[in-house]
């Protein structure tokens, strides 16, 4: 019974694909990261070339070689809940399948993102003298409300542990480099009028009719594609909700539209706000949400060397991810990890052994060449 | 105890204002019209110059004098529920108040419409030989769902009892003549698109944006004022509801707007439908509700004589009322009754004694001159 309380040994020298299976078997749905964090911490503390820090269920291990550059390799330890469908294979424990001579690993977190975490751990053990100082960052609570994020907590509690010239998040990108991310904001435009019985509508003023101009501006708007450091970011300006009306015989005195603007990393949040204020000049904009974009940072030497080592054309990232947290700290960041992001959170989440190994080889080459 | 089961005597020869008080004291919230219908029937059966019919809680009494013209005087016996606010005077029993030398009667139904019913009953008793044959129609279930209407039931069960050249509904109009009524229809226009994550909105097609054109047509539409038989009917075309949107990060694939068209009695329902199909050409219109307009019928001899007798400039009626039921049967109809319609259904519903008497005098003059 007591044995269950002791962190299991992780063999960081094993094939990173096998290590992925061991990590999946340490179930770690958000909020239950304690055992996996303990196992990761214990394994890293056995490595004399690393300095290890623990903050809640986050673990940071760093080389302290005095190199000119420092890079971060980051990944989250938590997963979404296990599938509830009987027979689903994206669960705990993991299972292997042989297909066309390839080995495929099924389990919760196979793609999102215990494959990436296994690569981090294998590199941490193997690279005793990397060409750049490396900070290996493992954190909790990524799959839940952003306010609970273990990475956000680390930023607040020990920002010095995250300082770097460049960061790689090992989120699943199927082996391609996805750089930076668009920012996102939400706002509401409310039109007002004067209520009346619809049988005497000339006494009133229809607030829904007044949305015609707002929708016309949305409809006429051509979203831009903006090139930042060689990557093309497509923007978007969309109504995501509209509402108004009281009853079938009432001229409504209020109507509203909810708008989402996804903006390229050429703009600060303030510049993005100025842009939508211009598009909707004459209206009051009520902002409900605003997250900064992140530049890909591909102009930094560490990033250029990374892209060369990976040997792949970088792509822009459209969704908002934790790279924006690094970007906000002044650390350019990209996503690069094993597995297909479309399989994340699915009932049959899986990753090929070869994808995990390829990711390991690419990063090892970058950090030793 | 048994006495309560017997219909109380109504003195139809009394001052119609006093008779109004007696009728108020016979509580008759919709669904509870039995006692008042019994009392009305009993009083009318005592009059040898009338033929009396009973259908449920509706009562029809007719002169059979073989006149060239027949007119209907109609009113409903039910009221909305009693007020629940302590101290409200628009309740049962009624109460009198003296103000500036005028007597004012408070009680549920004082305006809507026991004053009108009292006038009907007083005329029925007094006019033994009217210059036109008269059908006095009293009905139940007006203040509830239209499907329950006692007038509608009479139309189905005994349409011959309602046949006439002209009808007056004694609904409260403050002594003016309100002729005909606008028709009303409701329909929905749904726009569709293709759902997408708003971070990749170019993959989708925004259904809310497509409402821009629908709202632009509504906003640009100038409602007409159409003169029918000398009365000016103002039309209206209004969005009464709009909706769409799934979540703050989703390009919605469907949005809808609810539209209400109030149309003048120059148009049949079919013509009104054709008009909105033209306004919204290119869209599919989903109709949810359609009620015909009613012509005022002021070109009929009985109506012209009525207007002359009342000595007031007729006004158009904008809301939909039971005059439309008569109109649909080919009987032109107007509203003319004592009391201010704005007091109907209020906690302090009241009517002046003089208003009831004036209405009585105007109708008596028309039917005896």
UniProtKB/TrEMBL annotation, chains A, B:
Full protein name: Succinyl-diaminopimelate desuccinylase
EC number of the protein: 3.5.1.18
InterPro entries: Bact_exopeptidase_dim_dom, Peptidase_M20, Peptidase_M20_dimer, Peptidase_M20A, Succinyl-DAP_deSuclase_DapE
Organism of provenance: Kocuria oceani
Enzyme class: hydrolase
Residue span, Peptidase M20 dimerisation domain: 183-280
Keywords: Hydrolase, Metal-binding
NCBIfam families, per the entry: dapE-gram_pos
PANTHER family with a match to the protein in the record: ACETYLORNITHINE DEACETYLASE, N-ACETYL-L-CITRULLINE DEACETYLASE
């Amino acid at each position: 019974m007591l044995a269950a309380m002791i962190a299991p040994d992780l063999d960081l020298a094993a094939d990173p694909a096998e290590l992925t299976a061991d990590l999946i078997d340490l179930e770690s749905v958000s909020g239950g990261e304690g055992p996996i964090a303990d196992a990761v911490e214990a394994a890293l503390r056995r490595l004399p070339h690393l300095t290890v820090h623990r903050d809640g269920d986050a673990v940071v291990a760093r080389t302290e070689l005095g190199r000119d550059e420092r890079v971060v390799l980051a990944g989250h330890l938590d997963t979404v809940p296990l599938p509830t469908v009987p027979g689903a294979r994206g669960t705990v424990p993991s299972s292997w399948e042989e297909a066309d001579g390839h080995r495929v690993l099924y389990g919760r977190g196979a793609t999102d993102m215990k494959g990436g975490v296994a690569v981090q751990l294998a590199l941490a053990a193997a690279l005793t003298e990397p060409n750049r100082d490396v900070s290996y960052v493992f954190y909790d609570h990524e799959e839940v409300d952003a306010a609970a994020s273990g990475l956000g907590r680390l930023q607040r509690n020990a920002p010095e542990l995250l300082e770097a010239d460049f960061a790689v998040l090992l989120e699943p990108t199927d082996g391609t480099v996805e750089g930076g991310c668009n920012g996102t904001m939400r706002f509401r435009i409310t039109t007002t009028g004067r209520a009346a019985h619809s049988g005497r509508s000339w006494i009133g003023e229809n607030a829904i009719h007044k949305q015609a101009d707002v929708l016309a501006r949305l409809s006429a708007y051509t979203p831009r594609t903006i090139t930042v450091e060689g990557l093309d970011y497509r923007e978007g300006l969309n109504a995501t909700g509209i509402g108004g009306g009281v009853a079938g015989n009432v001229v409504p005195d209020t109507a509203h539209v909810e708008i989402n603007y996804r903006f390229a990393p050429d703009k600060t949040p303030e510049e993005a706000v100025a842009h939508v204020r211009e598009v909707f000049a004459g209206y009051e904009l009520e902002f409900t949400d605003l997250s900064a974009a992140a530049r890909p940072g591909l102009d930094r030497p560490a990033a250029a060397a990374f892209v060369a080592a990976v040997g792949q054309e970088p792509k822009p990232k459209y969704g908002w991810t934790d790279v924006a947290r690094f970007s906000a700290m002044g650390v350019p960041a990209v996503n690069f990890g094993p597995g297909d992001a479309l399989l994340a959170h699915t009932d049959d989440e899986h990753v090929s052994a070869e994808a995990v190994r390829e990711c390991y080889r690419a990063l090892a080459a970058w950090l030793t060449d």
